[in-house]
Amino acid sequence: MNEMNGAESLVATLAASGVELCFANPGTSEMHFVAALDRIPGVRCVLALFEGVATGAADGYWRMAGKPAATLLHLGPGLGNGWANLHNARKARSGIVNVVGDHATDHVRFESPLKSDLAGIAQSISHWVRRSQRAAEVGADGAAAVLAAHDGAVGRIATLVLPADTAWSAGGRADRAAAPAPAAGAPAATVEAAARTLASLRERSVLLIGAGGAADERAQRLAAAIAAKTGCRLLAEFYNARMPGGRGRPGIERLPYAVDPSVQKLEGAEALVLAGSVEPIGFFAYPGKPTQLKPPGAALMTLARPQDDVPRALEALAAALDVRVERDLVLHTPERVAAPSGALTPESVAMAIAATLPEQAIVIDEAVTTGRGFGRLMAAAAPHDWLQGMGGAIGYGLPCAVGAAIGAPGRPVLALEGDGSAMYTLQALWTMARESLPVVAVIFANRAYRILQGELKGVGAQVSGPKATDMLTLDRPALDWVALAQGHGVPAVRVDDAGELTRALQRGFASRMPCLIEVLL
Amino acid sequence: MNEMNGAESLVATLAASGVELCFANPGTSEMHFVAALDRIPGVRCVLALFEGVATGAADGYWRMAGKPAATLLHLGPGLGNGWANLHNARKARSGIVNVVGDHATDHVRFESPLKSDLAGIAQSISHWVRRSQRAAEVGADGAAAVLAAHDGAVGRIATLVLPADTAWSAGGRADRAAAPAPAAGAPAATVEAAARTLASLRERSVLLIGAGGAADERAQRLAAAIAAKTGCRLLAEFYNARMPGGRGRPGIERLPYAVDPSVQKLEGAEALVLAGSVEPIGFFAYPGKPTQLKPPGAALMTLARPQDDVPRALEALAAALDVRVERDLVLHTPERVAAPSGALTPESVAMAIAATLPEQAIVIDEAVTTGRGFGRLMAAAAPHDWLQGMGGAIGYGLPCAVGAAIGAPGRPVLALEGDGSAMYTLQALWTMARESLPVVAVIFANRAYRILQGELKGVGAQVSGPKATDMLTLDRPALDWVALAQGHGVPAVRVDDAGELTRALQRGFASRMPCLIEVLL
Prior knowledge:
The structure is a homodimer.
Chain A: E1 4-5, H1 6-16, E2 21-24, H2 31-39, E3 44-47, H3 51-65, E4 69-74, H4 75-91, E5 96-102, H5 118-125, E6 128-131, H6 135-148, E7 150-151, E8 154-155, E9 157-163, H7 164-168, E10 170-172, H8 188-201, E11 205-209, H9 212-215, H10 217-230, E12 233-236, E13 243-245, H11 259-266, E14 271-275, E15 299-304, H12 310-320, H13 325-328, H14 346-356, E16 361-366, H15 375-378, E17 384-388, H16 397-407, E18 413-418, H17 419-422, H18 428-434, E19 439-445, H19 450-458, H20 466-470, H21 481-487, E20 492-495, H22 498-511, E21 515-520
Parallel strand pairs in A: 2-3, 2-4, 4-5, 5-9, 6-9, 11-12, 11-14, 14-15, 16-17, 16-18, 18-19, 19-21, 20-21
Antiparallel strand pairs in A: 1-10, 7-8, 13-17
Helix pairs in contact in A: 1-2, 1-6, 3-4, 3-16, 4-5, 8-12, 10-12, 14-22
């Protein structure tokens, strides 16, 4: 082809490096990148109406596709709007390549309206930041960004700042990212020590899985077999970027969200063996409650870090303990759940979901308070993947559903949303409609920041009047989620009993198109 | 009263320092601040469903009330969601006191889900950042934050990070912010030099007003009288945080957005006298076009910086030139505009607005492409204030309308919005409904990022196919703004001719309640 400009060399580099998706909300400084999409094949661009949708979608895409997507963002404010979901992605250890346009090199010296501390905000959220200096270097910079979005088995946030003149100038040279270094297994001595610990302490030890230890079905089965053979306790971290569940899976229990039950769950443990997990820490601090959840004095042994090859480490651990999955793993297959009827309760909602969930569904869990009781019944649902918000920044769910649906084409997606959470990034509904994604979004409309009503007590704050109460309730006016969905081009229905919910879920999954169900609680 | 905790001392300090409003989107770490609102009088808290609404509202509040509001935000992600509108506020030179909750001091050492580089992101957007260390210091820190939100006649972004334990611990001591230093006038020698320049160069000089030079009606009249007497050109900056306009005002022309007409407007000028303004710079850079808009070699003379007392400086300049407003200012009062009918065109839309705008309305201009032609006809409208987005980050308009309505109680507000822009922070509609604010929101639904279709050509990018086109169009699916408004509790109507628009505006202003008008273009 003819000589490329910098933007074209970047698109060519991303395509050659396996980055096939770009979630975009572009502006003037990104116009050459946009124009390059038609001249250079290999990158599909998906438009978002708000940058938090683009970054959250890139998170969901990594979790399902296992490779980074790019985002295309407009200067400092674009990165600002994407920051919260980049935070969530960072905590999920998702790999993302942010391409952030900036003013041309000569222009950025002056105080124009969109001039901001772009370097500062990029540094505050990224593992890796680079600013391209010349069109001829954009390709190599892009290749370095893709490599930087990998860290062994997990991903990182890489941000490439692309001044407009480096995009529009001629002399672009396409490059290709080097293959990332393979994830490490566990050293033999570490495996031996972990094996001795579990075998000798038995129920006084905990095998705590996270990252690839929870996300990989083989790793889950290995961990469950090790627990069955040794008698150690087996737990997953309380939030997981991706966790296979449902019938035929081991159904590994998670650490609870609240501090007291977590401490209780770990009580009496003398050692925690970490397989892709990190030390369990309370989500928030509360007056008089511990931050570290393990018993004081309990040992922490790292079998494998999140970025390591956790399934391989667990395989080595199983071998050292003479564990054989086929022999030692006993799966308890729960009865299928019958479709419920009658009033909407946490139990009947969970039953409706468990009864209707299609095979290989991807469930995005941002149900917050409403969703805490779902775990037990979901073990009886069809095999599925369960994705959780990892960084505590609400508004991850609907965008993550967009990215997950695109990252795992053909698989149905169920997004479980609190009404307060869903409002942060409701613009994701429009991208679902635009891309005809098979996402069923369920909004639990309790018309309150219900979690905060609990947290207020948890931190010991005394509510003495209407002003504080007013900050935690969303019923004045009530949000109409059917109208909000239709406004974004997504058909919607409101349900107020469990039978209606069941039928709405069935219809939604059967349509293989986006729809929204408002559940009045 | 009983001994206060840190949060209570902060609320008491804000109230004592004149900060009466708090735009809030709180989380667990802010619960003690929320609880304190009922125990300590003097601060009104307004809830937003997204932090960008809170920060944009604080911007609009400062512009109308002339004093800072507080925002209440939840850790790094809350500040991230508010970043873009803090950027806009910073460029508008609005004063804001951000209160950002953080994990307790003992907790923040650990890698919990919401742990982030809060210091980094706070630094990237704030003029002033402090992290409270102990409950006993929170009051003094709050007082310092309020003082830091002032810089002479303009405001700054002050961010106070409040670890949860400094909020909940006893020992709080209320404080009160010191009075900010008064804004400086212009030194006599500077005034003399500016007077000589304008008097001698006449039409080869430009008096460029900005900040308080544009926002203050007296300053506008002084500037217009100076131009009438000396023959100098008079221009306002192309974006202004607040600019009185309409009948009985001088109707000062603004520099155009586009580079070529701006350069043309300044052609032949040998000196620019800056009265609250700064050197005019292009919004973006374009290949082959200048960044600095003034003629090469033209002198820049600063009569008054934005933070100075610009009206006083213009008064001194008028005195040095023997200008008397009563004698030298001739106002051309344009004919009133008749209500239009027929097709919706930029002209008929502007006529409908000019014909129906109530006295003392506040107009929030985020109409982007649609709104560029409104200027001329608005000179014939009733006297009003015109507020523009200052930082180029779209999504400022609806939140700014919330804050402006609260900052100037009783005044009607008209928000002019592009459909692309309004989608960034549409959650502001809910706060309008909740607070019964008299805001008429007009959405210009061209179903495209129309500005980008122009910018694409402006930067010389070659569009060769459907992928680029797809990134700039919003019609698949079409957004239904009537449904979106109703979903947020705001009544709405769709219009497709100028007569309907006129009647909808009349009904909306008469209702003195929020409503939305979708204008199909």
